[in-house]
């Protein structure tokens, strides 16, 4: 007999097991050490900021902005493409499935939101206007609006509304309610909740006799699944991640047409460079890592800690880039072209060295710009770059030898 709640529990458990499986590879000793150092450095900087808080800045607006963005919860339903066929007969029984998915999404987001709220509380308390009741009101408002927002999102999917439109609507409501609560205007928050509840009632009334908009629901779930895989793929290889290709004309200069000296020894270097520059995911993953690392280096304001973060950033970029070999070397063309397999590895080695060298130079420029008096620490970036490249290539060659055997 079909049981909607049991089906959701099974799919939710399967997803949790998959995330835990990848977490073993992500949260290794090196990464935990980096997170500990980075978190400690950021908390130290945050403590100094609270002691010498600059005046003339609307901190209530900043707090409300951060809390509003983090209160917009995604709705994981775990619906699959085949469900629009096999679950069609049980559509009326899926209400309990949806309610359970909403509750699971709410609990997960509420925990994250509460942690952020606790971190921002000292900033609100250190400001020029501190209202204890206002902070409590903002917290309650955020949780209630988050729960109602998940129901609104589901009704919007039944209506076929775009996900972006729902996010903008929820953000404006959350921003208005939280900001006014922090400012001590409590009744405005009640008005925002009444508006959101009324909107939900109206949407439920309209969709009362609507069937599932399976296409919208499945597309949204697919988008969330791919987003989860992309996040994990920043640190380790992921099965099921689809990488699309996109031409970036502003980078065409890096892909000049091969000259007359072009031969089989340089063909794989060109292949890896071309696929990387035009990859939708791999390219932006590296860019995001460098940007985030650069921001952390700027924020910590501690030369030694910033150098450690720079070292770990280069280490992560090289490891992340090493997965590009698995994604590309086993594709069609490397298997079809009548060349020695050693040329594929050699081409990737050149690509990895060029990419890691560019990354090390960029991180060095960022570090020297913020800590010019400690420029000599940047030498460690190139040392770790060389060492990590050697380790990656040795493991890759060893693995290829074992596969041959």
From TrEMBL:
Record's keyword terms, sorted: Membrane, Transmembrane, Transmembrane helix
Source domain of life: Bacteria
Record InterPro entries: EcsB_ABC
Residues that span the membrane, as ranges: 25-47, 59-79, 100-124, 130-152, 159-179, 185-203, 282-299, 305-325, 375-392
GO cellular component term of the entry, any: membrane
Keyword presence, Transmembrane helix: yes
Protein name according to UniProt: ABC transporter permease
């Amino acid at each position: 007999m079909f049981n909607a709640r049991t089906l959701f529990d099974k799919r939710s458990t399967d997803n949790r097991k998959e995330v835990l499986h990848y977490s073993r590879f992500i949260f290794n000793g090196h990464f935990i050490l980096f997170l500990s150092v980075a978190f400690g450095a950021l908390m130290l900087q945050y403590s100094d900021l609270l002691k010498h808080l600059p005046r003339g800045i609307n901190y209530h607006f900043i707090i409300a902005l951060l809390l509003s963005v983090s209160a917009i919860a995604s709705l994981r339903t775990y619906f699959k493409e085949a469900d629009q066929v096999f679950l069609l007969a049980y559509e009326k029984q899926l209400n309990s499935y949806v309610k359970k998915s909403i509750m699971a999404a709410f609990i997960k987001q509420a925990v994250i939101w509460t942690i952020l709220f606790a971190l921002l509380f000292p900033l609100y308390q250190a400001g020029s206007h501190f209202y204890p009741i206002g902070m409590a009101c903002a917290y309650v408002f955020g949780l209630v609006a988050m729960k109602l927002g998940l129901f609104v999102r589901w009704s919007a999917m039944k209506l076929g509304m775009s996900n972006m439109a729902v996010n903008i609507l929820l953000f404006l409501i959350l921003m208005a309610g939280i900001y006014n609560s922090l400012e001590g205007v409590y009744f405005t928050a009640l008005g925002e909740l009444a508006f959101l509840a009324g909107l939900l009632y109206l949407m439920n009334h309209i969709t009362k006799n609507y069937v599932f908009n399976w296409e919208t629901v499945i597309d949204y779930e697919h988008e969330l699944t791919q987003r989860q895989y992309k996040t994990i793929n920043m640190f380790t290889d992921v099965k099921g991640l689809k990488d699309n290709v996109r031409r970036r004309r502003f980078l065409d200069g890096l892909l000049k047409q091969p000259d007359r000296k072009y031969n089989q020894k340089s063909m794989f270097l060109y292949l890896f460079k071309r696929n990387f520059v035009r990859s939708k995911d791999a390219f932006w993953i590296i860019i995001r890592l460098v940007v985030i690392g650069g921001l952390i280096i700027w924020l910590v304001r501690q030369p030694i800690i910033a150098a450690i973060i720079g070292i770990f950033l280069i280490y992560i970029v090289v490891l992340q880039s090493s997965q590009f070999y698995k994604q590309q070397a086993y594709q069609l063309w490397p298997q079809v072209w009548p060349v020695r397999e050693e040329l594929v590895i050699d081409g990737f080695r050149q690509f990895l060295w060029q990419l890691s060298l560019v990354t090390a130079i960029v991180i060095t420029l960022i570090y020297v710009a913020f800590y010019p008096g400690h420029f000599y620490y940047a030498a460690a970036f190139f040392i770790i770059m060389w060492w990590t490249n050697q380790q990656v290539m040795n493991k890759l060659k060893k693995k290829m030898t074992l596969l041959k055997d």
